[in-house]
Design brief:
Family: Belongs to the OMP decarboxylase family. Type 2 subfamily.
CATH superfamily: Aldolase class I
Distance between the termini: 28 Å
Helix content: 40-55%
Catalytic activity: orotidine 5'-phosphate + H(+) = UMP + CO2
CATH topology: TIM Barrel
Strand content: 5-15%
Number of domains: 1
Bound molecules: the ligand O=c1ccn([C@@H]2O[C@H](COP(=O)(O)O)[C@@H](O)[C@H]2O)c(=O)[nH]1
Number of helices: 12
Keywords: Decarboxylase, Lyase, Pyrimidine biosynthesis
Number of strands: 8
EC number: 4.1.1.23
InterPro entries: Aldolase_TIM, OMPdecase_AS, OMPdecase_type-2, OMPdeCOase_dom, RibuloseP-bd_barrel
Order of helices and strands: HEHHEHHEHEHEHHEEHEHH
Strand order of the largest sheet: 1-2-3-4-5-6-7-8
C-alpha cells in the first residue's frame, strides 16, 4: 500500500486540511434526538459517515466513546471504520494506546494489521512507557503502509506537567518525542524534503508554544480547536513554517451542527474556510 504520509498529503490536497472527529458524547446523542445506547451510537455514526466520508480528508473516531458500549459498541466502530474507508476518507483511530512492547504488539495488530476488523489508516499512541515501547506499532505501520500519531504536547492543561519537564540535555519531554518521530521519518524518507513521513505527532492547538517541529517531516495533528478554546489563529501561530504538515482536528464544534447531514457538511465547509491559509 502507498505509505500513509503520501496518502495523507494527497487527501489533504484534494479535500482540504481538516480532521473531523466522531465523538459520540452522550450529550450529543441526546441533542441529535438519539438514545444514549448502541442504536443511538450506530445512527450517530451513520450520519457522520454520510456527512464526512466523501468530503473530509481525515476522520477520527474517538475509540473511547465506542468502547463505552462494550462489544456492541466496538461492532459499530468496525462498521464505521470500514464505511468511512469505502467513502474515501482516511481513518485515524484515536485509541491512544501504549504499553510494554509485547502488549503493544497486540495493540499494533488491532489497529494496523491488514487482517484486523478494526484496521485503520492510522492510530494515536502514547509514549509514556518510553518511545522504544512503541516500536511494534511503528514497525507494523511502516510495513503495512499505515501511520502512527504520537502524543507529544497535548491540548489539555494537565499535559504540561510531564510534557514540559526537561531532560538532562535541556530538551522538554515533548521535544524528545518529536525528535524520535523525526528520526523514524528520516529513515523512511527517500525522495527529499517534500515527502510527508508516516509518523506524526499530536500538538494541541491550545498551547502557548509548540515544540520545534522543523525536522519532523511528518504530519502534525492539532486537536483543541473550537470546544477547547483553540482558534485558527492559534493553529497558524503554532504551525510556523510547517503549514503543509498541519492537520487541525475539530470534533464538537462541527458535531454540534447535527443531526442534519447538510448542516454538518456546512459546518465542515465553514471550518475549512477558516483554515484556507494552510493550503497556500
Ligand atoms: O491532545 C489531544 C489529543 C487528543 N484529543 C482528542 O481530540 C478530540 C477533540 O475533541 P473536541 O470536541 O474538538 O474538543 C477528542 O476526541 C480528544 O480526545 C485532544 O483533544 N487533545
Amino acid at each position: 500500500m502507498t505509505p500513509f504520509g503520501q496518502r495523507l498529503a494527497d487527501a489533504l490536497g484534494r479535500r482540504g486540511p481538516l480532521c473531523v472527529g466522531i465523538d459520540p458524547h452522550p450529550g450529543l446523542l441526546t441533542a441529535w434526538g438519539l438514545g444514549d445506547d448502541v442504536d443511538g451510537l450506530a445512527r450517530f455514526s451513520e450520519l457522520c459517515v454520510e456527512a464526512f466520508g466523501d468530503t473530509v480528508a481525515v476522520v477520527k473516531p474517538q475509540v473511547a466513546f465506542f468502547e463505552a458500549y462494550g462489544s456492541a459498541g466496538l461492532a459499530v466502530l468496525e462498521r464505521t471504520i470500514a464505511d468511512l474507508g469505502e467513502a474515501g476518507a482516511l481513518v485515524l483511530a484515536d485509541a491512544k494506546r501504549g504499553d510494554i512492547g509485547s502488549t503493544m504488539d497486540a495493540y499494533a495488530r488491532t489497529w494496523l494489521s491488514d487482517g484486523s476488523a478494526l484496521r485503520s489508516d492510522a492510530v494515536t499512541v502514547s509514549p509514556y512507557l518510553g518511545f522504544g515501547s512503541l516500536a511494534p506499532a511503528l514497525d507494523l505501520a511502516a510495513g503495512t503502509g499505515r501511520g502512527v500519531f504520537v502524543l507529544a504536547a497535548t491540548s489539555n492543561p494537565e499535559g504540561a506537567q510531564f510534557q514540559r519537564a526537561r531532560l538532562d540535555d535541556g530538551r522538554t519531554v515533548a521535544q524528545v518525542v518529536v525528535d524520535e518521530c523525526a528520526a523514524r521519518n528520516s529513515v523512511a524518507r527517500t525522495d527529499g524534503a517534500a515527502q510527508l513521513g508516516s509518523v506524526g505527532v499530536v500538538v494541541g492547538a491550545t498551547l502557548t508554544e509548540a515544540p520545534d517541529l522543523s525536522d519532523l517531516h511528518g504530519p502534525i495533528l492539532m486537536p483543541g480547536v473550537g470546544a477547547q478554546g483553540g482558534t485558527a489563529d492559534d493553529v497558524r501561530r503554532l504551525a510556523g513554517d510547517h503549514l503543509r504538515a498541519v492537520v487541525p482536528n475539530v470534533s464538537r464544534d462541527v458535531l454540534r451542527a447535527g443531526p442534519s447531514v447538510a448542516d454538518l457538511r456546512a459546518a465542515v465547509a465553514r471550518t475549512l474556510d477558516g483554515f484556507a491559509f494552510l493550503m497556500n
